[in-house]
Amino acid sequence: MTEIGLPPINYGAITPMLILFGASCVGVFVEAFVPKAQRHLVQLVLSLGAITAALVTVVWQADTRTVTAGGAIAIDGPTLFLQGAILVLGVVSILLIGERSLERGGPFVAQAAIVVGSDADRNQTVRQPGATDIYPLSLFALTGMLLFVAANDLLTMFIGLEVLSLPLYLMCALARRRRLLSQEAALKYFMLGAYASAFFLFGLALVYGFTAGTPSGSGDNGGGVDFATIAAAVRNSEVSPALLYAGIALIAVGLLFKAAAAPFHVWTPDVYQGAPTPVTGFMAACTKVAAFGALLRVLHVAFGGASWAYTPVLGAVAALTMLVGAVLAVTQTDIKRLLAYSSVANAGYLLVGALAVNKQGLASTMFYLVAYGFTVLAGFAVVTLVRDADGEATHLSRWAGLGRRSPLFAGVFTFILLAFAGIPVTSGFTSKFAVFGAASGAGHTWLVVVGVLSSMILAFPYLRVVVMMWLSEPGESTPSVLVPGGLTAAALTIGVAATLVLGVAPESLLDLTNRAAEFVP
């Protein structure tokens, strides 16, 4: 009888994931045993400490190139770079999540076993102290993101997808204000996310069936879902590729949903609007890095030999995503929905870089992910500061004349919007230049043309907000801009500084992405 043993595991290589997972579990015990008055500080210090420790281990093993856990996890240049990006953006996100000075009790409140939207629900949200279980949920999500970008087979990637998704569904429902909108956002995200996960899992099964029907299948069962086996089957298969193409399509649905690419973007505006704004920023930055990190590994490592088959389809998806995001952003009257459609359009720009399935495309896409992550977190940090008696004032009409009431923060938000528009001396310009250059070099000139056209369209809603803030008269109901607390000020400073530095002097990060742009075989 054959013994089943544990595969060899390089625990040093997976230390960042172990640190975050351990801290997540400790955070659960903190919720159970630490008095309420001390929980916030303990959870904040624990979260920032764990993320920082994980980041240090990522930097420490910068030269590690290995496949471990029975081939399930690959630690290479893209893995370490993307894990580092997720952790750095995670620190900024935790700073926003940890802010408690803008609203009594903070923006989060625990779920209650009562009817949502009822008087009892409204009363308990006013009286309840801030929910601190947001911290272990954030750490669990970050753990899943680190696993997602390191996965070297489809099953491990699916596990990472679920580990990062489930906490996000809960986090979307924890808003203290606009409870019904928050609950609706969480339910929509959960339902559509479950469908996307099912598509991914079905695609996994079809790809396994394809590898099992080829001489290149691994093991006694004749098939496998590890990327090396899939790549070998794609190169050497003599059977019909129908299962392969169907599997690629279904796996792409699951990944493109997480990336907020059209036509799988429909959840994005509602979820971004309804979720607590710090959680929205967390999803817009960290989740997008994780989603595209997984997509890049699948395209380059597993299905690189079939790029001629999927490139036209993904090219059409990229063009549709850019145009849908840009055109629908023009029609928005809520700042969070505007930033949501901006996120959709930026997913299209990232796909343009990803479709250049070469080193330049990989490096430029990774650079774009970092640059966009800092900018979008800074943008949502400003949104948390514009408030009235009912909480955040997100309707664009309320932002009229804001530049006269608070010229400093209106100026900061103007700079952020110009970065989104891709104006020179901002990271938005350098990142778009990088991905468009990679796409042009790979022969996708038509996508560059669509990208430039959509960027021109997308500049209109950004400039409309700028004009409203600076050239419109403030009304009687114009909200005030609160002085940020220390945590929000730190997050905003980091985001704006990174946006400026990566626009003026991007060479260091570009060199780093070029050195990291090589997957292990």
Automatic annotation (TrEMBL):
Residues 151-457 form the NADH:quinone oxidoreductase/Mrp antiporter transmembrane domain. GO terms for biological process: ATP synthesis coupled electron transport. GO terms for molecular function: NADH dehydrogenase (quinone) (non-electrogenic) activity; NADH dehydrogenase (ubiquinone) activity; quinone binding. It is found in: Cell membrane; Endomembrane system; Membrane. It is a multi-pass membrane protein. Its EC number is 7.1.1.-. It is an enzyme of class 7 (translocase). Keywords: Cell membrane, Membrane, NAD, Quinone, Translocase, Transmembrane, Transmembrane helix, Transport. GO terms for cellular component: endomembrane system; plasma membrane. The chain crosses the membrane at residues 12-34, 41-60, 80-98, 134-151, 157-175, 187-210, 242-267, 279-303, 309-331, 338-357, 363-386, 407-426, 446-470, 482-505. NDH-1 shuttles electrons from NADH, via FMN and iron-sulfur (Fe-S) centers, to quinones in the respiratory chain. The immediate electron acceptor for the enzyme in this species is believed to be a menaquinone. Couples the redox reaction to proton translocation (for every two electrons transferred, four hydrogen ions are translocated across the cytoplasmic membrane), and thus conserves the redox energy in a proton gradient. Belongs to the complex I subunit 2 family. NDH-1 is composed of 14 different subunits. Subunits NuoA, H, J, K, L, M, N constitute the membrane sector of the complex. This is NADH-quinone oxidoreductase subunit N. It comes from Micromonospora pattaloongensis.
